[in-house]
């Protein structure tokens, strides 16, 4: 059997060398007169497949013309599933992926065809590698592209390895009570967590668990103290090493995007500054890291390669790896991260599980959490999970918590009555308003025009984060693309001496940019935001944040990786960022991407003021939908069915 060059890693979109010809051979089912059109043909006709998905099915058929139509369709759908955020495709619920009227095979017939196919591997056990010559894997009810099945398997194995190991520093992970601290740390613990003495304080529970366990999950909404807790936990680990006469722990702080890494480092610095007031010695505080890095930088990108310098055979040189915004990490990246964590090191994942899962194959954090919930710490998946619920960042200006809770729970009645009631400070509902660019033109335009007047690029980037339009969709009248085009026209009209003609020039002084692909060469990553401004010599450059926030890095606009404008951006792209004032603009009609996670993620990006523009019907439909993803991770971790 020939091995197919399917889906070069990280370049799924480029692999579509074959354009769909729309002429699918007559499927065996049709030859027997049972259906008029093959499932694959129906999918193509419905416009459900991407070129790449169809090309995969076509290559299988070229290699073996007898491949049943249902297997070809399953291959195309497994490919489409990854692009829709799933790890694999469930043939028992195809309408969850494609909601066109398709004459689907019965789950039984589909399963039988998959089981009999030469293209489909059926590994004997969840942790066994699947045969390299079969491009698909059918396992535990899901059809996977082999590569993604392998990522899932490697991730599960890696998590188990980390969780079972005895941490380098600290007490062994055993079944003793987490709250039982090493006696010599008790005084410091009491200083760090004064509330633990009088109440059941989940922050202190998380820190105590971290002393005993190598794999810790700390979750909670914005401002619930995840970073503060972890900073205090790191103090405990540093103190423990000091007492034992060991070297200080080597600690890495990382996040999936540069922006999130920066925010995390800033929160850690703030938390460290508060430590002396709690009586912590400055010498201990000095051992904590003050900078964060992206996961890509941590793992060491190799130019033009999806592989990293650090992996199982060249692990990261750290004893503790703390990763923020873990809900944004997709399956391939999480698998690579986990494999690069050395034996005996700790991995701490922080995140908000109610946010949107990663756009790419994911729901990884949710899968890990489900497994951690379902198991005792000594079982097959020894992870500790602490969920923080009390919000500490109560801004007097913005009373978001009640609305965020209603949205998170899908409680449409409460969410709408809170929005309409107008009593939450800082929250403004523009019911039925489909065009805030028109209704609030002056206010919005004044903000964008001010970017071009900043004294330097660093100041312009700070100003840029003061206001952002967030959209659910990219296309359509309420989509980021159309709004950006209109905003650019509006700005062109305001520029002195500039007629509309200058709107045609793509790059202009004050244009906000959003990078839409990872470029390891530029060290620019999907979601990074920059601004076009003229430098001292009058040359227009694109400025992006660097390691030092005071010194953004200039790039020639023509040399940038793929990018869009960023005056308006999708909620997906805004994950990990916060803005003083958020305008969440919802589409006029229901769209598949709407879900309660999307609305939750969108509204929780606001720091001081939130505007929601949309209809009651669309909000209601969004809150009814839960962005559940197909994943075998929970099952693979040995606990879920
Ligand atoms: N136990 C506590 N007592 C008082 N203030 C606290 C406590 N824990 C956290 N805070 C404060 O709450 C704010 C938010 O904390 P922190 O940044 O740790 O939250 P977070 O969950 O990491 O937030 P985000 O999700 O935005 O990253 C900070 O100002 C912090 O000082």
Automatic annotation (TrEMBL):
Keyword terms, alphabetized: ATP-binding, DNA damage, DNA repair, DNA-binding, Exonuclease, Helicase, Hydrolase, Isomerase, Nuclease, Nucleotide-binding
Keyword hit for Cell inner membrane: no
Limits of the RecBCD enzyme subunit RecD N-terminal domain: 46-144
Taxonomic path: Bacteria, Pseudomonadati, Pseudomonadota, Gammaproteobacteria, Lysobacterales
Main enzyme class: isomerase
HAMAP family, sorted: RecD (MF_01487)
Database matches in PANTHER family: DNA HELICASE B, DNA2/NAM7 HELICASE FAMILY MEMBER
Originating species: Luteimonas terricola
SUPFAM superfamilies for the chain: P-loop containing nucleoside triphosphate hydrolases
Note: In the RecBCD complex, RecB has a slow 3'-5' helicase, an exonuclease activity and loads RecA onto ssDNA, RecD has a fast 5'-3' helicase activity, while RecC stimulates the ATPase and processivity of the RecB helicase and contributes to recognition of the Chi site.
Matches recorded under Pfam families: AAA_19, RecD_N, UvrD_C_2
Gene: recD
Protein name: RecBCD enzyme subunit RecD
NCBIfam families assigned: recD
């Amino acid at each position: 059997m020939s091995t197919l060059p399917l889906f070069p890693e990280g370049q799924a979109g480029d692999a579509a060398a074959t354009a769909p010809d729309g002429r699918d051979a007559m499927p065996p089912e049709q030859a027997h007169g049972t259906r008029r059109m093959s499932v694959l043909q129906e999918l193509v006709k419905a416009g459900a497949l991407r070129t790449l998905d169809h090309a995969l099915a076509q290559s299988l058929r070229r290699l073996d013309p007898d491949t049943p139509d249902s297997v070809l369709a399953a291959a195309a759908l497994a490919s489409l599933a990854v692009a829709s955020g799933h790890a694999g495709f469930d043939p028992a619920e195809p309408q969850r992926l494609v909601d066109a009227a398709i004459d689907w095979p019965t789950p039984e017939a589909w399963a039988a065809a998959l089981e009999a196919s030469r293209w489909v591997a059926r590994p004997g056990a969840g942790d066994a590698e699947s045969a390299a010559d079969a491009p698909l894997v059918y396992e535990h009810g899901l059809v996977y592209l082999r590569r993604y099945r392998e990522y899932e398997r490697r991730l599960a194995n890696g998590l188990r390895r980390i969780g079972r190991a005895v941490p380098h520093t600290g007490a062994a992970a055993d079944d003793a009570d987490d709250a039982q601290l090493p006696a010599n740390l008790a005084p410091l613990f009491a200083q760090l967590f004064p509330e633990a003495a009088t109440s059941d304080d989940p922050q202190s529970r998380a820190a105590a668990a971290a002393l005993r366990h190598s794999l810790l999950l700390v979750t909670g909404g914005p401002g619930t103290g995840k970073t503060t807790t972890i900073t205090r936990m790191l103090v405990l680990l540093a103190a423990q090493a000091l007492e034992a006469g060991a070297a200080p722990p080597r600690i890495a702080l990382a996040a999936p995007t540069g922006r999130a890494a920066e925010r995390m480092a800033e929160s850690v610095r703030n938390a460290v500054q508060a430590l002396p007031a709690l009586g912590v010695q400055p010498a201990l505080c000095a051992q904590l890291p003050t900078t964060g890095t992206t996961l890509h930088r941590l793992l060491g990108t190799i130019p033009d390669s999806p592989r990293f310098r650090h992996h199982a055979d060249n692990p990261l040189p750290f004893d503790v790896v703390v990763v923020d915004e873990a809900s944004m990490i997709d399956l391939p990246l999480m698998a690579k991260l986990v494999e690069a964590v050395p034996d005996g090191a700790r991995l701490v994942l922080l995140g908000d599980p109610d946010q949107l899962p990663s756009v790419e194959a994911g729901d990884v954090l949710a899968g890990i959490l489900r497994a951690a919930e379902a198991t005792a710490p000594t079982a097959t998946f020894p992870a500790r999970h602490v969920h923080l619920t009390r919000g500490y960042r109560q801004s007097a200006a913005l009373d978001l918590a009640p609305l965020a809770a209603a949205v998170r729970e899908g409680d449409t009645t409460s969410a709408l009555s809170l929005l309409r009631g107008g009593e939450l400070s800082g929250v403004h509902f523009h019911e039925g308003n489909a065009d805030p660019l028109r209704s609030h033109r002056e206010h919005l335009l004044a903000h964008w025009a001010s970017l071009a007047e900043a004294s330097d690029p660093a100041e312009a980037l700070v100003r840029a984060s003061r206001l952002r339009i967030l959209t659910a969709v990219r296309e359509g009248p309420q989509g980021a693309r159309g709004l950006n085009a209109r905003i650019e026209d509006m700005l062109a009209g305001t520029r002195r001496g500039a007629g509309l003609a200058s709107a045609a020039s793509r790059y202009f002084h004050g244009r906000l940019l959003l990078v839409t692909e990872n470029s390891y060469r530029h060290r620019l990553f999907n979601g990074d935001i920059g601004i076009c401004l003229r430098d001292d010599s009058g040359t227009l450059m694109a400025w992006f944040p660097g390691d030092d926030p005071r010194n953004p890095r200039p790039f020639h606009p023509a040399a940038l990786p793929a990018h869009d404008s960023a005056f308006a951006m999708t909620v997906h792209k805004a994950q990990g960022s916060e803005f003083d004032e958020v305008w969440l603009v919802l589409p006029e009609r229901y769209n598949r991407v709407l879900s309660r996670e999307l609305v939750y993620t969108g509204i929780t990006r606001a720091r001081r003021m939130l505007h929601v523009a949309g209809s009651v019907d669309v909000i209601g439909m969004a809150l009814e939908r839960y962005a559940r993803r197909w994943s075998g991770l929970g099952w693979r971790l040995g606990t879920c069915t």
